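Quick start: load a record and inspect it. Here is Nucleoside transporter/FeoB GTPase Gate domain-containing protein:
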Amino acid sequence: MSSLDTATERTAAKGDQLSRDGLLKFLLPSLLGMSMFLVPIYLEDQVTIGLGLMADWLKGLAGDALPAMAVTILCLSVVLTTLVKVTKPGWAQKGVWREIFNVGHAWFAMRVLGALFGLMTLFQFGPEFIWNRNTGGVVLLDLVPVLLTFFFCAAVLLPFLVDFGLMEFIGALVSKPFRFIFRLPGRSAIDATASWLGSGTVGVLITAQQYEQGFYNRREAAVIATNFSVASIAFSLLITTFVGLNHMFIQFYLTVVVAGLIAAIIVPRLPPLSRKPDTYYEPVGCRIAEAAPSDKGVLRYSLELAVARAAQAPGAGKLAMSALINVVDIFLALLPLVVAIGTISLVLAEYTQLFVWLSYPMIPLLELLRLPEAAAAAPATLVGFADMFLPAVLAKGIESELTRFVVACLSLTQLVYMSEVGALLLKSRIPLNLWELLVIFLLRTLITLPIIALMAHVFFF
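Running the structure step on this input writes:
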């Protein structure tokens, strides 16, 4: 257990630490974090959060320059990684810089591919199937600008959400129901809410950071990242509008929530997640417990933990350096992975019959669920593994409103999308590999599909 944990526990054990200064140090930064990540904002018939508004402002400021900036970053990642591998400077042989630049051959190849795909798409040279608007164009022109701005803003604002006691407060407050229902710490409610209101990738970012700080063990981190990083309300509105179901948004989102909660209860109890060990990230070990002692009320204990955590929060300089390291890590290590995996996945979906062939076993299941146009809908049930927007693209051409409803709901409950969440998980230290992500995706598909179809038949159609 680290010195920070010991100090936090020691401070929380005292009964007089709920001073005015202590409460303010917890409340003011945490309220700022909540206002940016967790408070819904209704603007022009859209639901967003402060982080989303900040990211949109930054995206508007950079404008059409974002794809070129992204390609520059992709190329810089390759150049710096090559220089570090060749020259082996002292500063890059230890700590976080070693983890960013001293990568294996496979990860280096991904960075090279990401830069190459980015250049080909930006300048439209080489095979068209790489830079086509529906493949590399989707990644570089649609996905990357959103990720760049979202991740930059999230890296700057995240400390206000996780370093000043809010996670401890919520965690201790809802510890018992989360443990009972999901076998998870109460603080994971923050990850789910940040995903729900903001972005699934932001939820994964929070989970990865909490895992590396020892607040989640290996099983908990893997479960939270693959079962609670839900698509945001804003993206859900986009999906319903795209497939012509915006008049059924309430029914749509209710179905997604019910199916997602049931999957979050079942999937973690099945392999591969059930086989993950309850051990912690070795460099930090296990952090403080959330359960309140028998001699204290839950609310008071939650406040004591929160104030104790806020008292140990890093200063402004360390917070700024941590944010800078997070930005560098995301831009130079994660972005190439997203571009490489995203482009390859979209090429397979757009130019091959791979997903059509793989989806043949789904046709009898869809017919059993009494869904019209089962053959047309089958590829849409699996193509989401490549990118979360692809099922909606395929579903748009389906005439049956019932089938479009089911496919659209399913696309938001599958959660594991290689162009975003999957790439981020593979890059993170959370112990999940590609095959495990595929199995989890299929499990979530097979569990949520009948639930969605049943709700659609019984209540809405």
